[in-house]
């Protein structure tokens, strides 16, 4: 089975994963915003720890209505733009299209399912250090694994083919049996590092090297475990040590929220903070330090520092 892919949101994440697929010979169609003209003429350049490449020629578009219908749509937009998906996605979809949300946070699939109740929807968790460093230019500095699980109307054989395609493209790929648990696991990393790098104007390595901020990171991680447990998702305590160790070994990194803040873009507070806080609170768990961090981020986001 040869799958046709669409990338909605060709930035640091969508550009990397879509670029890998295209570089491996898969049919991939990329939706661009401001970079369309440059990339159409010059291609998409990816510097990567597992091998640099350029996708040129490239199937680039500036409107989804100009794109073909695809078997798999990888949505890598910031979740703050998900309200646009109701208009963006329909031209790309046929009856059996699988929509994969490669985004951070909780509750994302439920929101999409309200607009697309008859389509297969999956969630993707990317553990990767990747950033956009120029027009049509992405730098992949570390890691890169993708974990995908179904939210509604699963198509197992298609997901297995997606997994095979990504493995051929040098992307470690895992199938999550429990999407909700997988999203909570991703929050164990996202909640402390995304927010603290913004609030403290720092990077992951500096957070880890300071005893006080390392302790705060650990407290926030354990609070996420408590929230997950209240919602019926038991995550082993050792997972915190695993995330700390992986971050210790990681190259100095500014997470996506820090880059958004530095570039005066709206922060993904709702998906990464407000939704998990509210979900846990409804289950009787109060994530107090997480809520304090979210309040600080809302202030910073509002004043445009």
What does it look like?
The protein is α/β, with parallel strands linked by helices and 305 residues long. α3 (85-88) links the parallel β6 (70-75) and β7 (93-102). It has helices spanning 14-23, 36-42, 85-88, 108-115, 156-168, 179-199, 204-209, 211-230, 238-249, 256-262, 269-282, 288-303; strands spanning 4-8, 27-31, 44-48, 53-55, 60-61, 70-75, 93-102, 120-134, 137-152, 173-175. Helix content is 45%, strand content 23%.
Main attributes of the structure:
alpha/beta; 45% helix; 305 residues; single chain; 10 strands; 10-stranded mixed β-sheet; 23% strand
Helix proportion range: 40-55%
C-alpha Rg, in Å? 19 Å
Output mean pLDDT: 97
- What is the string of SSEs from the N terminus onward? EHEHEEEEHEHEEHEHHHHHHH
From the helix content, strand content and strand pairing, which structural class follows? alpha/beta
Distance between the termini: 49 Å
Number of strands: 10
Overall geometric form: globular
- In DSSP terms, counting alpha (H) and pi (I) runs of 4 or more, how many helices? 12
Q: What fraction strand?
A: 15-25%
**Which parts are unreliable, with pLDDT below 50 for 5 consecutive residues or more?**
none
- For the report, how would you describe the main beta sheet? 10 strands, mixed
């Amino acid at each position: 089975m040869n799958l046709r892919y669409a990338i909605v949101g060709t930035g640091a994440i969508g550009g990397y994963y879509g670029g890998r697929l295209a570089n491996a010979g898969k049919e991939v169609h990329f939706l661009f915003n401001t970079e369309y003209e440059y990339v159409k003429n010059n291609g998409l350049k990816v510097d990567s720890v597992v091998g640099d490449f350029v996708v040129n020629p490239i199937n680039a578009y500036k409107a989804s209505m100009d794109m073909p219908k695809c078997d798999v749509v990888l949505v890598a937009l910031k979740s703050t733009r998900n309200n646009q998906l109701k208009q963006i996605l329909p031209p790309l979809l046929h009856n059996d299209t699988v929509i994969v949300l490669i985004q951070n946070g909780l509750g994302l699939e439920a929101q999409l399912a309200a607009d697309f109740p008859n389509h297969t929807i999956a969630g993707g968790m990317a553990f990767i250090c990747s950033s956009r460093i120029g027009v049509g230019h992405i730098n992949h500095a570390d890691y890169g694994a993708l974990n995908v699980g179904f939210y509604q109307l699963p198509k197992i054989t298609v997901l297995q083919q997606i997994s095979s395609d990504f493995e051929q493209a040098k992307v470690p790929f895992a199938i999550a049996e429990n999407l909700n648990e997988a999203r909570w696991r991703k929050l164990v990393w996202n909640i402390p590092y995304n927010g603290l790098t913004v609030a403290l104007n720092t990077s992951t390595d500096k957070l880890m090297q300071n005893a006080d901020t390392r302790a705060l990171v650990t407290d926030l991680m354990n609070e996420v475990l408590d929230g997950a447990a209240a919602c019926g998702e038991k995550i082993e305590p050792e997972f915190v040590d695993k995330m700390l160790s992986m971050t210790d070994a990681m190259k100095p990194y500014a997470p996506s929220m820090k880059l958004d803040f530095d570039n005066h873009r709206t922060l993904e507070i709702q998906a990464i903070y407000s939704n998990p806080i509210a979900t846990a609170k409804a289950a009787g768990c109060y994530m107090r330090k997480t809520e304090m961090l979210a309040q600080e981020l809302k202030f910073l986001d509002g004043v445009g520092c």
